[in-house]
């Protein structure tokens, strides 16, 4: 049992560290006056096209959360920040539970707010299936 708890904590730590690193790198990727005399955008068009292609391939289409989820609070109390989310592929998101662990039992899950059966997450972008799972799973004990 201790090994399983240690594995869960290790996965959570790795997911949080990875999210922090990705957020830090994203902040360094431009968007302002880069001092190069250009528009500061760099490869924005390429990055946007790549992100769109990745999102479409991962989610099967449009996967933008409705406005009521953008800064909503998860069942564990964390507030969602749309500027610091990981992609579904980065957290190995899958739409089926793993070993009884599913998003609806995770402290980062934001429950359905509009009746479509989907929720959101404070760590992961896009719509989240309550039966889904990712490596950032942390059991809600409330």
Automatic annotation (TrEMBL):
Organism: Haloplanus rallus
Region: Disordered, residue numbers: 22-101
Gly residues composition-biased segments: 27-43
GO biological process terms held by the UniProt record: aerobic electron transport chain
Name of the protein in question: High potential iron-sulfur proteins family profile domain-containing protein
Amino acid composition bias (Polar residues), ranges on this chain: 81-95
One Gene Ontology molecular-function label: 4 iron, 4 sulfur cluster binding
PROSITE patterns in alphabetical order: HIPIP (PS51373), PROKAR_LIPOPROTEIN (PS51257)
Protein keywords: 4Fe-4S, Electron transport, Iron, Iron-sulfur, Metal-binding, Transport
Domain of life (superkingdom): Archaea
Domain (High potential iron-sulfur proteins family profile): residue spans on this chain: 74-142
SUPFAM superfamilies per the UniProt record, alphabetical: HIPIP (high potential iron protein)
Family annotation (Pfam families): HIPIP (PF01355)
Ranges of biased composition (kind: Low complexity): 44-64
């Amino acid at each position: 049992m201790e090994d399983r708890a240690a594995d869960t904590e290790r996965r959570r730590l790795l997911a949080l560290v990875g999210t922090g690193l990705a957020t830090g790198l994203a902040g360094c990727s431009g968007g302002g006056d880069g001092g190069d005399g250009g528009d500061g955008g760099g490869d924005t068009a390429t990055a946007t096209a790549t992100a769109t292609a990745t999102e479409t391939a991962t989610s099967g289409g449009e996967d933008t959360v409705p406005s009521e989820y953008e800064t909503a609070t998860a069942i564990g109390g964390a507030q969602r920040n749309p500027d610091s989310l990981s992609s579904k592929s980065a957290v190995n998101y899958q739409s089926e539970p793993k070993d009884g662990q599913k998003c609806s039992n995770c402290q980062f899950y934001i429950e359905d707010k509009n009746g479509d059966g989907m929720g959101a997450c404070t760590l992961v972008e896009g719509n989240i299936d309550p039966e889904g799972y990712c490596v950032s799973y942390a059991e809600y004990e409330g």
